[in-house]
Specification:
485 residues; mainly beta; six-stranded antiparallel sheet; 2 helices; 37 strands
């Protein structure tokens, strides 16, 4: 199919049911399909949105284009969960069906207010010359899942930004409402985070200017502010960031700043951090959304996919997934990201991998191991029976300790122009603890209790389900096959 502009922006009601059912069937039969992560029933899955707690359940939406693995006319798909692991898909909740979002319901957030959930998102509109106009749209969702949109924008784009002004996050502080948005300054063409304030969530909203963060490239997408162990943390996606500021290999990085304080009225952010830090040391994490939950913790979920990139599953008419949910904490001024406790509910029978050189872990599994200090070697994931096609984890736990993950020899290539390996530094002379999750075409590696996370897609051949450890390595390991969510 040739994806013309007219095809991508064809109204949903003009697509026939048979086409959608065929796409859903094709996605469900895919060998690469995810089984315990949120994935599209058909077409494209994009940014997580509206991550929140409401009506006694966890809520998340994802930006979707259900008719193909391309970026087209976006809607929001709604899911709920009782434990942040088992998600129920309730289908499309926000359609691009008003003059304020006629060309797509783009990213945004949600907050429980009274007995309803308030949604705030970017409405994408194109005029007859295909010039973009963005509106920050408000909507109420009731306990039955019915969404009612406000008829006027919450925020119109100010004169001092370009057309790139989007992805609002709603915050509440000292009885007032605040919103932060990604922006590009019109005069300098620099990436910024805009700050707004209102007495009521429906407005009027007052422009407080920009948050005073340092250089963030030419655009900031998906900014989030959360408080972790009492400290303000900005999580964001800077596009075009100079690699002299912070090294990264992905086309666009997902990063964070940990601060000492944040002034909601002036936008002043006090931090001891010298530069932004990569949120994920892997290949494919972007558009992370985080929020402070009623239980006192901050949680985060990410899009596992990247802008402007393609993946082998695109040929099957579906693309991308969401990461598992991670609970955030701080250690020595850096973020820890840990799997939520309910991930253990997916475990089947525990098996001991200690001392074995090879083990068939299955296509959806968890591996937990400790590698003693002072060693080096390789651990192979998703390997064939001969260990020739696999994901390679190369480790050193003595001096100059590090962990390198290479997916370059594991089936179909995945965006090799941006490198096939990623490396994270480790503490010298210490044991290495790894908790590794595999879900058919996704791996998530939690290093030393979440001090680093390495996430990536891979597209193996049939039979690549073995785990292999180099001989002579002193380690202990357990593994579980995991159930569907």
């Amino acid at each position: 199919m040739e994806w013309t502009r007219e095809k991508r922006y064809l109204p949903y009601e003009k697509w026939d049911v048979k086409t959608l059912l065929e796409l859903q069937s094709q996605a469900a039969r895919s060998d690469y399909q995810l089984h315990y992560h949120i994935r599209p029933t058909s077409g494209l899955l994009n940014d997580p949105n509206g991550f929140s707690y409401y009506n006694g359940r966890w809520q998340v939406f994802y930006q979707a284009y259900p008719f193909g693995a391309v970026h087209g006319l976006k809607s929001w798909v709604h899911l709920t969960s009782s434990d942040l692991v088992h998600w129920e898909n309730l289908g499309e909740a926000v359609y691009p069906d008003t003059p304020l979002d006629s060309h797509g319901a783009y990213s945004g957030s949600a907050k429980a207010i009274g007995d309803k959930l308030f949604l705030m998102y970017t409405g994408n509109v194109r005029d007859e010359n295909w010039v973009r106009h963005s509106y920050q749209v408000g909507a109420w969702m009731d306990e039955e899942g019915k969404v009612t949109k406000l008829e006027t924008p919450l925020i119109n784009s100010p004169e001092h930004v370009t057309e790139h002004f989007r992805d609002p996050q709603i915050l509440e502080h000292d009885g007032k409402y605040y919103a932060i948005l990604g922006a590009q300054d019109k005069e300098t063409k620099a990436g910024k985070i805009s700050l707004y304030k209102a007495d009521a969530v429906t407005g009027p909203w007052q422009d407080l200017g920009y948050v005073d963060l340092p250089d963030m490239g030419y655009m900031v997408e998906c900014p989030n502010l959360v408080f972790v162990d009492g400290k303000p943390v900005f999580i964001f996606c800077p596009q075009g960031l100079d690699k002299k500021v912070t090294d990264y290999q992905n086309v666009y990085p997902n990063m964070y700043w940990v601060g000492e304080s944040f002034d909601f009225e002036t936008g002043h952010f006090e931090t001891k951090q010298k530069a932004p830090i990569n949120l994920d040391g892997g290949f494919d994490v972007y558009a992370t959304q985080a929020f402070n939950a009623p239980d006192g913790y901050a949680y985060a979920i990410s899009w596992v996919g990247l802008p402007d990139m393609t993946y082998p599953s695109d040929k099957e008419g579906w693309a991308n997934c969401l990461s598992q949910v991670k609970r955030l904490a701080l250690k020595h001024g850096r973020l820890l990201q840990k799997p939520v406790k309910a991930m253990k509910s997916l475990r089947g029978v525990e098996e001991d991998f200690t001392g074995d050189l090879a083990f068939d872990a299955g296509a959806q599994s968890e591996l937990k191991l400790t590698i003693k200090q002072g060693q080096k070697g390789k651990l192979l994931l998703a390997a064939d029976s001969e260990g020739k096609n696999c994901i390679k984890l190369s480790f050193k736990t003595g001096k100059h300790a590090r962990l390198m993950v290479d997916r370059g020899e594991c089936g179909q290539a995945v965006n090799p122009d941006y490198g096939t390996s990623r490396t994270v530094k480790l503490p010298d002379g210490e044991d290495l603890d790894l908790r590794i999750f595999v879900d058919h075409s996704l791996f998530e590696i939690f290093v030393n209790g979440g001090e680093e996370v390495i996430t990536g897609r891979f597209f193996p051949q049939n039979g690549q389900t073995f785990v292999k450890m180099d001989s002579g390595v002193d380690y202990q390991a357990k593994t579980w096959r995991l159930k569907d969510m």
